[in-house]
Amino acid sequence: MSKIDQISAKILRALSRDGRMSNLLLAEAVGLSPSACLRRVQELERSGVIKGYRARLDPDQTGRAYVVYVAVGLAEHTKAAQEGFEHAMQAAPEVAECHNVAGAFEYILRVEAADLPSYKAFHTDVLGTVPHVRSITSYMVMGSPKDMRA
What we know:
alpha+beta; Alpha-Beta Plaits; four-stranded antiparallel beta sheet; 39% helix
């Protein structure tokens, strides 16, 4: 599917809010018959527009309520240094997201930990041991008035 029309956009917005919405309710919300709606959703999935569905977990109950965004600068700007860092972040369960960015540093991480001591252990024992890490700047999340992640 190369172009997303208004109806498909409505479907995507509705599923972004509630990925478990029944096809019947979704069809009603977007003004289609259930069979036409199901065909649209299946085509959005097949074409890769919809990549999957996720459960939103309660961070307090999963022990991941302490969120920190971390800016990481590398000492070397080589492919090997980047691949090594990315491999280390793939193996770190605390890292929920790892983004290679342009700017003053190379990576932004979303780190989820139980509390400050848990984050400190990650900072020291994981980030602090990865070769080529030059700088680490931590931004502790104090609140999230808007969070559209599924």
